[in-house]
Amino acid sequence: MARDQYRDFEALYLRYYPGVLVFLCFLVGAHEVAEDLASLVFEKALIHLADVQTPDTAGPWLFRIARNCAADYFRRYKPTISLEQLLIEEYPQAGSLEEIVVASEQQRHLLAHLGQLPERERVVIGLKFVANLNNREIARVLQIPEGTVGSLLYRALRRLRAALAEEGGQDEEGP
Amino acid sequence: MKKDHDRYTDAWPDRLDAVVAGENVPSTSDDELLQLATRLVIALAPLQEIRRGAERHGQSLPSHLRVKYAGAAHKRVHRLSRLILLVATLLLFVPVIGIVSTGGLAAIGGRAAQVWHASTSLDQIKGLSVASLSRPHAGLKPLPLLPAALPGDTQASTYGVITNQADPDVLITFVADYRIGGQDVLLYEQPSYGPFTSSVAKTVRVGTLEGQLFQDDAGNNALQWYQHGMVCQITSKLPVERLVALASIFQPIKSWDLIL
Predict the structure, then answer these.
(1) Any CB–CB contact under 8 A between A91 and chain B?
(2) Is A8 within the bounds of a domain?
(3) pTM for the whole thing?
């Protein structure tokens, strides 16, 4: 295989591995699992490297593989997503104890509801907020029109807000 | 509630982009969803630390992907099917077992040096060379895997490596023979671009990985799994639980001091 093809693959890896890794962390909620899956993504990418037609399609293609790998992982092992544990317990925020407790509790609720969103909406939030892709790239990952990405994000946030509001309402009604 | 502001417009995606990029913090009069987006950015911020960590450490292609790449290149050039590779592996496996098992027993008797003399007979296999581990293999690739710690009742161990004749640092096969708890334990490893699967094997968990267990009527257990670009197999009459426990702590060799 030509030397420059090796360099192309290495460049692809160096450019996209961090983003793919955190996207998978977001989806599966476990750093070690995400690392294993990210390796798998690039192993699959290597096998199908010839499918990449232009450099700008490579990123969305890798994230599409990552989404499929995460879906396979959930199908096979049916794990519970523990994004709250990964983000709050392993990366505690700075501040006073009271601030940390309050902020952690709020974030725990937010992340718990995030984990309850439909897979497609969680994916679009992960691609936007974690992988930092723009709407055009997200559209290529999900293979939908670019204009649909904005409304999908909007719908996901609305659903999240509704879940939080419902929980708040339940709290107020409680003893 | 500020439902009046909570409407999807053409400008909304751009405003969301600004929030995600940290260029705009929505005020209380802004769309509630944008405020929620800000909370999400904060809650998910630790993931950006993981990203930065990966960016700092990822300066080149990791070894397992280099091996995969080499494997893919090899595959493309020679169009070797997995079946052929498996047959070749098994054919190679038979003579290696004999020689290294002898070595394990020899080590118990303090005649380890003779193992290498015996091993050199593998030179007769066309296209292969035998590399003694009497010299450190700092450049060997891919790295073989060994258990992070041997069980307390390990009585003896012997190791052997077959490398590429043209490039002595390219690993073809790694073998080790242990005497543990009065039983021989044979380890065999070969670089591969995927696990070998068998419909007759039982599936077992090896740590976070999936392994295959083969058993025969004579009480031999063979546990095979795929890790770090290597197909690994340990064979012994030791109980399956002990083999699984041993396999679960395999890792690429970090120090050749372990086996020299």
Answers:
(1) yes
(2) yes
(3) 0.55
